[in-house]
Design goal:
single chain; mainly alpha; three-stranded antiparallel beta sheet; 58% helix; globular
Length: 301
C-alpha cells in the first residue's frame, strides 16, 4: 500500500473513529502530506527509520521551530502505530524516532485590570442595542468567564446553556463533554444578547444557524475566524499584542483563577485538559507575574 493511501485511511480513522476535531485532523494531514511529498510516496513498508530521520533533518534545515518539529514527529508516530495495529506493516519504524524537546513558552496573559477596561468598553458599546455589539460583548465575557476554547464557544447550542445555574455544556477535544460555570457579568451580557441581539440576527438566518447561541452578521452560526478577529481587534491593543487570539482569554482565565486561590485540579477540570501537566504551565505564568511584581516593587529586589 502506498504511503499516501495509508495516510488517507488513517486520517479517516482520526475523524470518524477517534472523532478528533477538524483542526487536529488538518494538522495531521499537513504533517503526513509533507512526509509523503518528501519521500516521494513509497510503499508504506518501505519507509524505514533512516528515511524518517532524513525527513526530520529537512525540517531542521528548513528552520522549523522545535515545537513544530516535535508535533510532526508525534503525528508520524501515531500514524505508524495505527498502521502496525491494522496489520499494514510488520514493525513500527518510528519507534526509534527521537523528537526534539519543545521549548516551552509562556502564554500571553492579560492583566485583570486590562480586561476589566476591555469588557467595560464592550459593555458600553452593547448599551446602544446594536445586535452585533450585544453579541460581541457576550462572546468576550463568555470566553474569559468560562475559559472555553473558541471552537467550544462557537459550537454552543441554546440547549447547552443552563441560565438558572449559570453553566455551559461544552464539547471539547475528542468530543468529550464537560460542564463549566460562568459568572454574573457574563450572565447579564448573555441575557441582554438573547433578548435583544440574537432575535435580530436569527431573522437573517440563511439556514446555517439552527439552535446556535452565537450567530454571525448574515444569520449563520458564528465561526472561530470571526471570534479571532474580534479578540485581536478589541483585546490585542490592551495587552500590546498585534495578533492575539481567543486562547489568550482562556490563558488569562486560568491564570487569574490560580492567582485567586483556585487549586490546579479545579482549573484542569474547567479547562478540560486531559493531563494535569498541561495545566501546570499556568503555575509558571503566576510565578513569573509574582517575580515581576517583586522586582518592580521591592526596594531590595
Amino acid at each position: 500500500m502506498r504511503s499516501s493511501v495509508a495516510a488517507e485511511a488513517f486520517l479517516s480513522h482520526l475523524a470518524t473513529v477517534r472523532r478528533l476535531s477538524p483542526a487536529t485532523v488538518r494538522a495531521y494531514r499537513s504533517d503526513l502530506a509533507d512526509l509523503v511529498r518528501s519521500t516521494s510516496d513509497p510503499e508504506l513498508a518501505g519507509l524505514d527509520i533512516e528515511r524518517l530521520r532524513e525527513w526530520q533533518w529537512e525540517a531542521t534545515t528548513a528552520g522549523l521551530s522545535k515545537a513544530t518539529a516535535a508535533r510532526r514527529t508525534s503525528s508520524v508516530r501515531a500514524f505508524f502505530s495505527w498502521a502496525r495495529d491494522e496489520g499494514l506493516i510488520d514493525s513500527d519504524p518510528s519507534a526509534r524516532l527521537v523528537a526534539p524537546k519543545r521549548g516551552r513558552t509562556l502564554p500571553v496573559v492579560a492583566t485583570s485590570s486590562a480586561l476589566d477596561e476591555v469588557l467595560a468598553s464592550a459593555a458600553t458599546r452593547a448599551e446602544t442595542g446594536d445586535p452585533l455589539e450585544l453579541r460581541d460583548h457576550t462572546v468576550l465575557e463568555m470566553l474569559y468567564g468560562s475559559g472555553a476554547r473558541v471552537s467550544e464557544l462557537c459550537g454552543l447550542d441554546l440547549d447547552d446553556v443552563d441560565r438558572d445555574n449559570r453553566t455551559l455544556r461544552l464539547r471539547g477535544k475528542g468530543d468529550k463533554e464537560r460542564v463549566v460555570p460562568y459568572g454574573l457579568p457574563a450572565a447579564r451580557a448573555l441575557d441582554a444578547y438573547l433578548v435583544r441581539g440574537r432575535p435580530v440576527l436569527s431573522a437573517r438566518d440563511d439556514g446555517g444557524a439552527g439552535r446556535a447561541v452565537f450567530i454571525g452578521a448574515r444569520g449563520a452560526r458564528l465561526g472561530p475566524r470571526a471570534v479571532h478577529a474580534l479578540v485581536s481587534r478589541v483585546v490585542g491593543p490592551a495587552v500590546g499584542a498585534e495578533a492575539l487570539g481567543p486562547h489568550a482569554l482562556r490563558h488569562s482565565a486560568a491564570t487569574h483563577l490560580l492567582d485567586g486561590g483556585a487549586d490546579l485540579r479545579t482549573v484542569q477540570e474547567i479547562l478540560g485538559h486531559a493531563s494535569l501537566g498541561t495545566t501546570q504551565i499556568y503555575t509558571h505564568v503566576s510565578g513569573e507575574r509574582l517575580r515581576e511584581a517583586y522586582r518592580l516593587a521591592h526596594p531590595r529586589a
